[in-house]
């Protein structure tokens, strides 16, 4: 039985036809995949379904009846839950308040705090998530916030649940918990839409698939049991996608480290962290949600207080005050996992986003930055990274997630950094763009950059890293030299994560 159908939906923006006659059907008791490259129209379609955008053509049908949603609240009231790719938590509220925001429990006209805690714990338990319902969401990591978003969507007990990149910032263990919940929803007769660039997940949990390309449906409700991975990728990109082959690259293990941590502790709770990254080396930092990986990176950049130990850059002990100090005085760049809030200026042109790190270099007398020099620099990196834009004047907030991530990376490459910390580089990135990012990161290391790579995507880690340093509870619990054998590496890394005590591999 079809619970929901988007029929021949159109959506137009100035100069762009984002959706062109797209059709999507969601069946009761089924998990349906929605696939496509960045900019294909997936998130736009979800925003139309949930009332954030009004369609310019076509119909939305719920239980066979046409519906029109003027806001997300209206779609939620009709039984459509959603987890967006961008965070939608209210910063001033607690975990529990955010989870139960659609219907806060009350008693005698007042918010019932005890009921909020009890109900929130129930939905957090569904995801095996050990969080305090009274904790402010501003204290959560990006991955924890993603899981709270999922708990929030579950609490509405929707008949139709839309999951837009729900596993983008979480590790395989957390993803498995989510898939278990999705299976229970499916058995209960719900219709689940699953958007992901991780095709192994799609084939693991989905029954059918719709593929979008350039705002149109190139496959509607295809049976996944009758499709191969290459066939799906071919539908997404318009040609068979070749497997990524990276050229040989060697690391001089005798070279002095460009970045070195010796017994580092932080105000966040890190202790005794030892870490080295040499020129031309990619060191992976892996761990479960809450292990402290991103927090460690931010402490290195002066965004958190280092309370013990020593940070050395090119052999010299340093105390980095902020991101500007890290870039100007130590040639350290940071590609953040949170591109929407920290990686790009959404309300500024692409040109300004890319050139902002090099204005000091381009600036002439009286602070004047020549437009011609800025345009040439921007054009170089737009071409190098394949950033899809209408013009350099286009606002970054109008770009797809993948293109925003490219802009975030471009500004650090333009600044000629020598040490690059890259946090979750391919979250929400399609398969072809992901391969381009992997090739780029590999080439940057081959040209001598020291790269500290943080990713929850274990295949990505095993593809790129020369060594994998594993963290647990804000400490380094072991290290695995990478021979790029996925089965062996994944077993050793996961064993370290769950082992008691500290182990070296």
From TrEMBL:
<dbReference type="InterPro" id="IPR003439">
    <property type="entry name" value="ABC_transporter-like_ATP-bd"/>
</dbReference>
<protein>
    <submittedName>
        <fullName>Monosaccharide ABC transporter ATP-binding protein (CUT2 family)</fullName>
    </submittedName>
</protein>
<dbReference type="GO" id="GO:0016887">
    <property type="term" value="F:ATP hydrolysis activity"/>
</dbReference>
<feature type="domain" description="ABC transporter">
    <location>
        <begin position="4"/>
        <end position="240"/>
    </location>
</feature>
<dbReference type="InterPro" id="IPR027417">
    <property type="entry name" value="P-loop_NTPase"/>
</dbReference>
<keyword id="KW-0547">Nucleotide-binding</keyword>
<dbReference type="InterPro" id="IPR050107">
    <property type="entry name" value="ABC_carbohydrate_import_ATPase"/>
</dbReference>
<dbReference type="InterPro" id="IPR003593">
    <property type="entry name" value="AAA+_ATPase"/>
</dbReference>
<dbReference type="InterPro" id="IPR017871">
    <property type="entry name" value="ABC_transporter-like_CS"/>
</dbReference>
<keyword id="KW-1278">Translocase</keyword>
<feature type="domain" description="ABC transporter">
    <location>
        <begin position="248"/>
        <end position="498"/>
    </location>
</feature>
<keyword id="KW-0813">Transport</keyword>
<keyword id="KW-0472">Membrane</keyword>
<dbReference type="GO" id="GO:0005886">
    <property type="term" value="C:plasma membrane"/>
</dbReference>
<dbReference type="Pfam" id="PF00005">
    <property type="entry name" value="ABC_tran"/>
</dbReference>
<keyword id="KW-1003">Cell membrane</keyword>
<dbReference type="GO" id="GO:0005524">
    <property type="term" value="F:ATP binding"/>
</dbReference>
<keyword id="KW-0067">ATP-binding</keyword>
<keyword id="KW-0677">Repeat</keyword>
